[in-house]
Amino acid sequence: MHNQLLTPEVILLSPTALAPPTLPATPRHADGTLVDRYGRHVTYLRLSITDRCDFRCRYCMAEEMTFLPRAQVLTLEECLRIANAFVDLGVTKVRVTGGEPLVRHNAIWLLEQLARLPGLLELVMTTNGSQLDRFAPALRDAGVKRINISLDTLRADRFREITRVGDLSKVLRGLDAAQAAGFQRLKINTVMMRGSNDDELIDLVEFVVGRGIDIAFIEEMPLGDIGHARQVFGSEEALVRLQTRFVLLPSTETTGGPARYWRIPDTSTRVGFISPHSHNFCASCNRVRITARGELYPCLGNNHAVALLPLLRAHRTDDAPLRAAIVRSMGIKAQAHDFSNQMDAPQVVRFMSMTGG
Ligand code: SAM
Ligand code: SF4
User: Fold this and answer.
1) Is residue 149 a contact partner of residue 218, using CB atoms and an 8 Å limit?
2) Which end of the chain is more exposed for a tag (fewer CB within 10 A), N or C?
3) How confident is the model at residue 299 (pLDDT cuts 50, 70, 90)?
4) What residue's CA is closest to ligand 1, atom 11?
5) 219 within some domain
């Protein structure tokens, strides 16, 4: 049985020992925002509000999972305190993720509170879509602007095989509900797997063009030891394959992350490629992640983290220590991630469902 508590290579620095002695102290930037040792401004927080999920995607989780005891998971109020501190420090975009964020009880309450934070310009979410048929209008009303929905295949049997338990028709109903609710943009996230769904790339693009939404193809990342033989299908190869069917015009749009976008003329669709392997995006990285148990990971592809939960619980009414720890965490943001093309052994032992995608 795989246990998410067993992450032996995670280095948890105590909040009072955040800056290793060899590093220069990283003061808060003069304008009050977060800047790391390499001059990168952090403006984007990805907040995982649960490690639990109703799917067991093969690239993300083991079949048998032991989830965290509730006491070790951030309460929704603690999620809000953390997000509030980041927004105070200049973060303008928050993505709520998981695990599956919509299986967290009262997730809508948290989203409503987040949407009200002064200074937060973009509140967005990543979901597997399984609960969207119920929650899409409430999410829209809460103030969520855009949603990413994970969908790796349009074939029901294959969907079940990849997610182990998921029902494609329910996700498609969720997508319908999200389109009807009128979000600013919807995007499909597709993890490309050689020999599994690489024959559907063109079908998936036809599908999103037909619906007037976007798609991002993701290269699989080596996160978590889940006994899954990873067969990376790279963005370059995907692009060549799509160009046999579509005209793709390069777009200059960027979110500061590993995605590069293309447009299809005469459609509203953008096609993105998220390429942690083949594209080095680290120089423009603007994001940090919070896990469901309150660890701050300045880099997805690196094991350095700061445990915020003890700090939150030791100072229940004073956010100053939390803010100070966040500022000091800029001192451990890695210059570049540790991924390599060697996919046999996971370099990062966390599960994606812990850190949030
Ligand atoms: N449960 C939600 C979902 O599936 O959209 C949100 C969390 S999930 C961890 C976020 C994203 O990470 C999904 O788009 C998923 O496909 C992606 N993901 C999970 N494991 C991955 C891996 N090993 N490599 C690349 N992407 C991965
Ligand atoms: Fe759940 Fe998302 Fe991971 Fe799939 S990718 S198992 S839906 S957290």
Assistant:
1) no
2) N
3) confident
4) 357
5) no
Q: 211 among the known binding-site residues?
A: no
Q: How far apart are the first and last CA of the chain?
A: 23
> CA nearest 61: which of 128, 3, 132?
3
Ligand 1 atom closest to Cα of 224? Answer: 23
Q: Which ligand is nearest to the CA of 56?
A: 2
d(CA 55, CA 57): 6
Cα of 190 vs centre of ligand 1, distance in Å, is 9
Q: Which two tokens stand for residue 252?
A: 């200059």
Is 285 marked as binding a ligand? yes
From the list 55, 64, 53, 34, the residue with the least C-alpha distance to 97 is 53
State which amino acid sits at residue 331.
Answer: G
Residue whose token pair is 């500061």? 256
Domain count, the chain: 1
The model carries a pTM of 0.89
Answer whether residue 135 is part of any domain. Answer: yes
Domain annotation covers residue 305: yes
Q: What digits encode the pLDDT tens for the residues 239-275?
A: 999 999 999 999 987 666 678 999 999 999 999 999 8
For residue 218, the ligand closest to its alpha carbon is: 1
CA distance 87 to 121: 10
Nearest atom in ligand 2 to 56's CA:
6
